UniProtKB/TrEMBL annotation:
Membrane topology category: Multi-pass membrane protein
A GO-annotated cellular component: respiratory chain complex
GO MF annotation list: NADH dehydrogenase (ubiquinone) activity; oxidoreductase activity, acting on NAD(P)H
Keyword Transport: yes
UniProt main location, coarse: mitochondrion
Catalytic activities: a ubiquinone + NADH + 5 H(+)(in) = a ubiquinol + NAD(+) + 4 H(+)(out)
Name of the featured protein: NADH-ubiquinone oxidoreductase chain 4L
Keyword Transmembrane helix: yes
Organism (species): Hemisalanx brachyrostralis
EC number(s) stated in the UniProt entry for this protein: 7.1.1.2
Length: 98
């Protein structure tokens, strides 16, 4: 395993572990999701460069655009829950009440 592969694999696993084990605030969950998406972007970019596939070069940019849309929707949800509930703790959110 090359150091590049190790770095984005470990970044994805760290983001996944942070999402699974540290779920106290909505902002930390969103940051873990963003880290996972950015590690996938790096992985797709490196794979397209190594494979020298010019037709596949638009896929990382498409993933980055979806990641930006996901981040903006997540921040909108964060602002809405902070205004309605007064906090961003995930324990205080009840999906049946929202």
């Amino acid at each position: 395993m090359t150091p590049t592969h190790f770095s984005f694999t470990s970044a994805f696993i760290l983001g996944l572990m942070g999402l699974a084990f540290h779920r106290t605030h909505l902002l930390s969950a969103l940051l873990c999701l963003e880290g996972m998406m950015l590690s996938l972007y790096i992985a797709l970019s490196v794979w397209a460069l190594q494979a020298e596939a010019t037709g596949f070069s638009c896929a990382p940019m498409l993933l980055l655009a979806f990641s930006a849309c996901e981040a903006s929707a997540g921040l909108a949800i964060l602002v809405a829950t902070a205004r309605t509930h007064g906090t961003d703790h995930l324990q205080s959110l009840n999906l049946l009440r929202c």
